[in-house]
Amino acid sequence: MNANEPVIKAEKLTKRFGNFVATDAISFEVYKGEIFGFLGANGAGKTTAMRMLCGLSIPSSGTARIAGFDVYRQTEEIKRNIGYMSQKFSLYEDLTVLENIRFFGGIYGLGNQQLKLKSDALIERLGLQPEAKKLVGELPLGWKQKLAFSVSILHEPTIVFLDEPTGGVDPVTRRQFWAMIYEAASNGITVFVTTHYMDEAEYCNRISIMVDGRIAALGTPGELKTQLNESSMDGVFYQLARGAKNSG
Predict the structure, then answer these.
(1) Domain 8-247 belongs to what architecture?
(2) What is the DSSP letter of 137?
(3) Radius of gyration over alpha carbons of the chain, in Å?
(4) Looking at residue 244, what is its pLDDT?
């Protein structure tokens, strides 16, 4: 990939389920090391769009390239170049912390020596030495989330996709989680994060706001607040959602 090319490029990306249009001709670009927020209420089409971008769901129409690979023809290459953390953190609760790290590291293609070094370093960085041999199911939710995120970038992917990563955790853990996101971005990993917490938009470099399957606004948090003369992202989202209802 050329260094100036976007690592995510979607053009009129659409997904239909029968007569229902889940995502309606969405277009946007995301660049290396950017924290890109994909905001919207539940049911707005965020998860459907993310699944297409991750190579987990084939679009109905439109185009997209992820880390230089085509979402129709190169889904396996896409999967090798991304990390993914689902809403339910996708760890095995009946495996220990260390077993989870080594299992997913193996799936991501890390060799035995590299895997041992990265596993030890990750457990030390998270301060999980006493819990390394505990089952993940015994950990508090916040620790599960932080571990799941760390595992998703263990192989140093080009992009990490985070689907509602802070759902259900307390405000302190949310701030800690976002500190981890900033660290990943500073290391050159592009972060694509979906959320319905409007205050989290302030943490992103740019945001796209989805309303009824469409991108209703795209820009930095400051730009969107200025355009709509609002002091908060909650106000921005309210105006956009109300405008969509009125036009429908």
Answers:
(1) 3-Layer(aba) Sandwich (3.40)
(2) G
(3) 18
(4) 53
